[in-house]
């Protein structure tokens, strides 16, 4: 009986990919989980910071968003350093420094110190997410990348579910040792992040060949599949700026991601105050109800990659999800029932978070190597600007209306613009694929638009 070599190779690659899913992704998820906890736990402290140190709603929105400004400006330089020194060392460095600064948030005394520490936290964390995405390009074939990114996004969605109750429970320590509850929250969660950084340094392999739990054949299979169809061979940014940052599909993906993040971060940073305005009382209970948004987000990052494998046109699916976000946010504004509002927040997060793996799948299929390190960081940089705009815009609207939930008007506007950009993305992707059709990527072809 003859043996089909292709079937044997496919079985070897599938087995190796499963190992990576269970051995590598949990470490990457742990780092991103704590990153999300440390960047968003300030939302739980919003009311306490107003009462204890006099930070206004507008000042809180500016301070929450200013994190993303420093993060954005250093995103590309950070990822270029990562490409030089390696993901393991750089991700560990990021976790150790941002953990220390997150713990230092316990020393906030007013607006100025709040702004300064949030700004420094952004500097420390810059480059984490694109470094994780870069690792996906080194370990996974194109057909598996949306699934891998979806699993990585489980980290922030689970953080939304459990971060609120954990943070709320820590804030119940108010008065212990002479510290406010929010000080305990920042201290404990910052120290845990530093411990994760140590784990990353000692346990995270950078490339398949470094993984002791893979055979040589499995490592080679993963590396070959991950590099299949790569057309970017540049080793320096100078002279290749347009290829790294200026290709139309990269710019449009970045713009759609910008408006997604205005919605995403705006909602996340204001869920606790929206829930509290619905007459929910107690830090723990507010955190628990706020976690419903994380449940919706978790459903999104699991369900959409599953649908993606059966839906050939990625850009069309992005458009459908943007339209669904618009519909659910309009419904939120129109509904007055508190339970209905909480459910609609969760539903909105299904679509907002579910879109995220698709952005990165579109980008990863069309860049590699140094161009991937630079291009993915650029897309994330533009998105981070949305992370600044979202909380600040929510704060401005709330300051005018007095209603935390009125920030969903920002979501409606962002969703309309996102829907309008989708046809432009489809055209840009088709043009990019035609331009590179002389060297097609075998496994990327199934993920591209037809």
From TrEMBL:
InterPro entries in alphabetical order: MFS, MFS_dom, MFS_trans_sf
Cellular localization per UniProt: Cell membrane
Organism superkingdom: Bacteria
Keyword RNA-binding: no
Gene3D superfamilies, sorted: MFS general substrate transporter like domains
GO MF terms, alphabetically ordered: transmembrane transporter activity
Membrane topology: Multi-pass membrane protein
Keyword annotations: Membrane, Transmembrane, Transmembrane helix, Transport
Domain Major facilitator superfamily (MFS) profile span(s) in chain numbering: 24-430
GO cellular component terms given for this protein: plasma membrane
SUPFAM superfamilies: MFS general substrate transporter
Principal subcellular localisation of the protein: membrane
TM regions (residue ranges): 20-37, 57-78, 90-108, 114-136, 148-170, 182-202, 249-271, 283-305, 317-336, 342-363, 370-394, 406-425
The protein's name: MFS transporter
């Amino acid at each position: 009986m003859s043996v089909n070599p292709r079937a044997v190779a496919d079985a070897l690659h599938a087995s190796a990919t499963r190992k990576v899913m269970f051995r590598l992704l949990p470490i990457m998820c742990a780092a991103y989980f704590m990153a999300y906890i440390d960047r968003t736990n300030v939302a739980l402290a919003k009311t306490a910071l107003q009462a204890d140190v006099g930070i206004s709603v507008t000042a809180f929105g500016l301070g929450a968003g200013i994190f993303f400004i420093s993060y954005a400006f250093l995103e590309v330089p950070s990822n270029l350093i990562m490409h030089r020194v390696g993901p393991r060392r750089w991700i560990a460095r990021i976790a150790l420094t941002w953990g220390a600064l997150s713990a230092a948030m316990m020393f906030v005394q007013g607006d100025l110190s709040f702004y300064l520490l949030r700004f420094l936290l952004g500097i420390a964390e810059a480059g984490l997410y694109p470094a994780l995405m870069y690792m996906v390009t080194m370990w996974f074939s194109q057909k598996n990348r949306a699934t891998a990114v979806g699993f990585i996004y489980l980290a922030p969605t689970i953080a939304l579910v459990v971060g609120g109750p954990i943070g709320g429970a820590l804030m119940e320590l108010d008065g212990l040792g002479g510290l406010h509850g929010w000080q305990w929250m920042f201290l404990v969660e910052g120290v845990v992040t530093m411990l994760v950084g140590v784990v990353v340094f000692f346990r995270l392999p950078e490339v398949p060949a470094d993984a002791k739990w893979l055979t040589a054949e499995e490592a080679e299979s993963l590396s070959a599949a991950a590099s299949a169809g790569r057309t970017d061979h540049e080793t320096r940014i100078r002279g290749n700026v347009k290829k790294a940052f200026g290709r139309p599909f990269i710019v449009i993906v970045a713009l759609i991601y910008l408006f997604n993040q205005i919605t995403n971060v705006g909602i996340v940073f204001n869920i606790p105050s929206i829930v509290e305005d619905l007459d929910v009382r107690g830090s723990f209970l507010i955190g628990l109800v706020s976690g419903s948004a994380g449940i919706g987000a978790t459903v999104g990052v699991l369900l959409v990659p599953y649908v993606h494998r059966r839906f050939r046109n990625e850009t069309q699916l992005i458009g459908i999800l943007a339209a669904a976000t618009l519909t659910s946010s309009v419904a939120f504004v129109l509904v007055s029932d508190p339970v209905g509002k909480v459910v609609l927040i969760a539903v909105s997060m299904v679509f907002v978070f579910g879109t995220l793996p698709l952005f990165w799948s579109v980008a990863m299929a069309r860049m590699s190597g140094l161009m991937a390190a630079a291009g993915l960081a650029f897309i994330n940089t533009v998105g981070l600007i949305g992370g600044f705009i979202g909380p600040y815009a929510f704060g401005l609207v709330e300051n005018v209306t007095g209603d935390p939930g009125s920030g969903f008007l920002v979501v409606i506007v962002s969703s309309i613009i996102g829907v309008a950009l989708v046809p432009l993305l489809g055209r840009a992707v088709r043009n990019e694929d035609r331009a590179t059709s002389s060297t097609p990527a075998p496994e990327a072809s199934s993920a591209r638009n037809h």
